[in-house]
UniProtKB/TrEMBL annotation:
Keyword Repeat: yes
InterPro entries: Apaf_helical, Disease_R_plants, Leu-rich_rpt_typical-subtyp, LRR_dom_sf, NB-ARC, P-loop_NTPase, RPS4B/Roq1-like_LRR, WH_DNA-bd_sf
GO molecular function, one term: ADP binding
Ranges for domain Disease resistance protein Roq1-like winged-helix: 236-304
GO biological process, alphabetically ordered: defense response
SUPFAM superfamilies (UniProt xref): L domain-like (SSF52058), P-loop containing nucleoside triphosphate hydrolases (SSF52540), Winged helix' DNA-binding domain (SSF46785)
Keywords, ordered alphabetically: Leucine-rich repeat, Plant defense, Repeat
Limits of the NB-ARC domain: 10-169
Pfam family, one: NB-ARC
Protein name: Uncharacterized protein
Amino acid sequence: MISLSQKESDGDDVLMIGIWGPGGIGKTAIARAIYNAIKRQFQGSCFLERVRETSNKSNGLVDLQRRLLSQILSSGHLLVPNVHDGISLIRDRLPCKKVLLVLDDVDQLDQLDVLAGEGHWFGKGSRIFVTSRDKRLFTLSRCKNRLYEVKPLDHDEALDLFNQHAFSNCKKHEIRKDLIGRALHYAGGFPLALEVLGSFLCGREEPAWESALHNLSKCPDQTINKVLKISFEGLENNEKEVFLDIACFFKGKNIEYIKKVIDNSRDFDTTIVIDILIERSLIRNEHGTLQMHDLVQLMGQNIVLQDNPGNPGQRSRLWFFKDVLDVLCEEKGTDAIEAIVVDFLTPEERDLSLEEITIEADAFKKMTNLRMLIFPKAHISSDGPIHLPSNLRWLKWPNAPLPKFGSGPKELIGLDLQKSHIRQLNIFKHFRWLKYVNFSQCKSLVSVPDFSSAPNLEFLNLDWCESLVELHQSVACLDKLELLSLQYCFNLSIFPHTLKAKSLQTLDLFCCCKLKKFSDIPEKMEHLEELDLGWTAIKELPASIENLSSVKLLNLEYCKRLTTLPSSVYKLQNLLYLNLDCCSNFAVFPRNSTDPSGNPGFRNLYWLEFGGCNLSEVEFLESSSSFPKLAHLNLSRNKFTHLPTCINKYDNLEHLIVDNCKQLQKIPQLPPNVHTLKASRCRSLQEFPHLSGLSSNRLLVEFCSCRELSRKGANTTDVLSLKVRLFSLSLSRTH
């Protein structure tokens, strides 16, 4: 950072350099070292420590201005009546002086405004170093600035600093390397923690080290904790609540998941709050997950534990499985509990979760303020339905006993009961705010009830509900539903006869083996992009399929009863991927009979799969204008004898697969961009195209077991002449 300052020192600009990071990371030490190293290069210098602490005192800002002026001007008795006069004095007395100014531990913009509001207050070439836990201060400053983020020490640096304090100036004890490693892990590269912990352990023997490190893993060192807690105390109430949620429950989780859960369990949006916590160095975004230093997490958890150290039923948040079981089994719950999240089990807790645990039906009765309940898969049972508070917003409880809510309006937004033993759902009355429902792997569930009293539902997952027979018509009419997934519902046979969910984006019916009929679509559905009907028993698609105007993926693989598609399928102009692989009775793909409006066909389709169908002709390909962007065409294992000669007009075609087309006799000239041609086991093939006209520098060509080609001694010279360009080549051979 010294080099950063000196790099710009030749210029006349006044430069502010921000030193940003969490408490205890060494910002002040860095600023002090820089100050001592370069202060002789300036006409005046001043190091103002503890700006945050001093400014909170009566006339604190005035005192800071007085010290700044006195040190730089070497004047012992300078009168500064008030803040405004102090600003005037700095602007009037210092614009001709090249100064070095360090403002340590700044946490509010007004502190910068009265001490170094603008660059022209100081002489050319001046440097202002500011240490802060809040990144946003530097974006709001009116001075030209550079920002330096202080990161934890690496292992070698941390070990060196720790050794200086743990093994210097005291009687040397032999300490195991694993204990030193645990101490370094606890400190996590924070200089303050390394110094405090090293000094505390200095001169102690191994049993004392082990005891101290064990205790610190449960309760933080108060000296370190006090420094870290300063950042927390400067937060607004909403920011504190979100920070504590992350510290107790969500460290390391995906940001979008965290936002979804917290947003929907509180009455405010967390997007800006998370940004603020990042700016204050309390959390960080790492590849889409929220992380925080272990010491910062321990500080947050300790704040909650101090609500009532001896009685978990009186704390706002519970995250230890043992504490939760103590509260539930002993019915110690109170209205103080706002959230229960047990997302990780220690080995000891995992063993405990395998035991049969019985709780009373009213175990949650007194938790009237419970807003979030996320529980691990555990063997918890009850004599009857578990009564849950109506204020609950988010419930995730795999393998849960049957839940029961009060008769009035419910606040529930997220409901995840996957792997539960629910047979009938009779709980969806007065769930107006419900958005997310996951009943996946509820293998006893037979039917899905009327969802019309949940008009805000956006997500419904019923994957692997193997006993599910019927989906209620109301589900297909939910205006806000975006995802409906019923993968592997092997017994589903009754599906809504009409589909009107106008916000639906994804509909997945993959492997619903007994589903014979797909819904009619009476109105435009402009948001549906993915429709998966693979491995179903449907015989046809309705002509109204054209109303899926935005669909991009249509999967019909292994629909063995499907014989054709309606010609209206050509109106799916946003379709990118169409898969009819292994539709063994599919005999005719419709031709595009251009309508009066000049329908151009599949103008965006690039992937088309017909492998294992029953096509005896491919006349639909004669209209190349219907497939202008087609890049991948798989026609393997079909019965046609010829490809249309106009195949050479498919300018974007890159992959052509006709393996095992046993009646295929001729492959015409191909378009220039083809770089994969697979025609193995085409036993009737007699002619193949010249490949010299292909432009690709990496060709994959396969003609394995094309016995008619071999019997007639077809000329392979053209292929062999391209061997320099061939990535892979398999010529005819007989077996």
